[in-house]
Amino acid sequence: MNPRLGRLLASAAATVVSGGALLGAGGLLGAPFASAAPPARSRGGGGACDVAALARHNGTVHIDFWESMVTNNGKTLAALTQQFNSSQSKVHVTLVQQKSYTTTWVKYQAGLSNGHLPDVVQLTSIDLQGVVDSRSAMPVATCMKASHYKTSDFLPRVLSAYRIGGKQIGMPFAVSGPVLIYNEKAFAAAGITSPPATLAQLLADAKILKAHGSGMGLKLDPWHLETWLASANQLFVNNGNGRRARATKTVFDTPTAKKIWTDLDQLVQSGEAKTNPATGSAEYDNLLGIGNGQYAMTIDTTAVLGTVEAVLATGKYPNVQLGVAPFPVFSTRIRGGIEVGGSALYVSNRKSPLARAAAWEYIEFLDSPASQATWAKGTGYIPIRKSSTRTATVKALWAAEPGYKVAYEQLLAGANTDATAGAVLGPYTQVRTAELNAEESMFQSHVSPSVALKQASAKIDQIITQYDQRIGAK
What we know:
The protein is of the alpha/beta class. The protein folds into two domains: 3-15 and 177-337 and 422-471, 3-Layer(aba) Sandwich (D-Maltodextrin-Binding Protein, domain 2); 31-176 and 339-418, Periplasmic binding protein-like II (D-Maltodextrin-Binding Protein, domain 2). It has helices spanning 3-11, 53-56, 71-87, 101-114, 128-134, 140-147, 156-160, 184-189, 199-211, 223-231, 238-242, 255-269, 285-291, 305-312, 353-366, 369-379, 392-400, 403-412, 418-421, 428-445, 449-471; strands at 61-67, 91-97, 120-124, 137-138, 163-164, 167-168, 171-176, 178-183, 216-220, 273-277, 297-301, 322-326, 341-348. Strands 1, 2, 3, 4, 7 and 13 form a six-stranded mixed beta sheet that branches.
């Protein structure tokens, strides 16, 4: 395999978030929040959103945006921000690049103590409860109400991902999702006429592909369980996945979850799938394996498609014809849905009312139909507004790269429920680590799927309890 693919994939690592986000992103230990314990059903910090403040103000309001985009994604965001700054004189945005989602979240938590916080911050989907617990963000619902902002044009599930108790906390921006990535030539050589639509079909196709000299690359990303549960419309934690009241324990140790892990364990133990870590130097081995013929399919985030397409366009891999298909759901007989991945924008409640109004003005621009079309074209992220898909920009993109349309249609289809909105948890990094450890115990130590699930459930319950005790939640 040409090392250029590995270098290019690695350069995008900081912005890739698969499913509910990669393992490295998310809450730490909750210690920064210990002095400001939220009530049990806290729904974000306070603060008014005086959208008319900008009109009354003479001069330019300068605000900072801590963002997490690099490479082409960063260039696209910079171009959009320059367009915004040039289009009016009321607000000037300065981008402060943090290199990765993890870096942004760590720095943001430090800022809760030292006072160095941005006017706007970009954080992943699994940071939502942590932001709420910090009581440092003004729910964007406040600005929506003040500005009579309409949301009917947005994909409903995208908004639901950042909503707790019916209140919009963060504003979705860079949205991604998991898809099946496969080599159409390898499928044809094995006599497979269409990509697998379900987990059961995935197992059957992996067996055929292995018999024809390839197989599947399986990234050890802990969102496997959560995504397949959502596709079966099943919750991960109680209290409506933490969206109707604070989650206090897991509810995923079910026959459905046992079936999911039993199937994945069968894939690995049979040799029809080989695993690689979701972080570190080997995190893209599942994709590299498609290039060198070791694998014929894998599951990964749409956020890697732009880089993969660019490498394949060099013509150095003539045996690969890239195919992109929907995530293979648990069952087509169950109306579930695929969880939203990516990130949202939050407005600080520790800034002046004028700064909050300026932040909202900028967010409105980034989420406008035209900006979302430009964003999708420049990055491969999913346009979050229906009208964006009717623009010439997105129509041309999807005509040239039909794989990008797959993830959008996944989020448009299916059920919009607490299960498909995803879980809301404060200590999500530790939760994901516990999931991963249990999954690896199956693959590497031959622990049975039922025992591994029980161990994961018990550990995560303990993590949730300890976190809530640290921050004083009830």
